[in-house]
Amino acid sequence: MGAADGGLGERGGAEHGRGDDVAGHDQDDLLRATVVDGCRYWATDPVLARRVLGLTAADPEAAALVARHDDGRLALLRTVVGRLDEAGLLAVGRQEALDVLWLLTGFDAYDALARGRARSTSTVAALLVDLAHARLVVSAFL
User: Which stretches are tagged as biased composition: Basic and acidic residues (predicted)?
Assistant: First the structure.
């Protein structure tokens, strides 16, 4: 796993693992920034992400690496959902908001559009941001 540790593992902490990643954003920009940053993160090395994710079923090291990454991403998303809820912006409950953001910020969503539909990272991000807003944000704040 050595090479992957220097990629997905380090990037997981840098982009998806810290609640302070969202501290500089106001609530109006928070959702957009979270989704856009997630797309930029996956775009840095999608081949590596595919390889590491593909290894998780057979390689305990890969599975542990992805689990640590996912724990960090989940912590970040909980922070985002909490801030949106405290600001009165959520149109759904916290758990549903977390589930929607988990789906929209995951590699599968990014890769299905970037690779599967040959869309640019900015196009993918714009579509996923629109989906997040449509499902999660109280319409008065759109």
Answer: 12-25
Could you give the dihedral angle defined by the CA atoms of residues 114, 109, 71 and 85, in that order, rounded to the nearest 10 degrees? 120
From 113, 109, 8, select the one nearest 64 (Cα to Cα). Answer: 8
Q: How many other C-beta atoms are found inside a 10 Å radius of the C-beta of residue 127?
A: 17
Distance CA 82, CA 78 (A): 6
Instruction: State the helix-helix crossing angle for 94-104 and 121-136, rounded to 10 degrees.
Output: 170
- What is the tens place of the pLDDT at every residue in 94-128? 999 999 999 999 999 999 999 999 999 999 999 99
Domains with residue ranges and CATH for the chain: 2-141 (1.10.357)
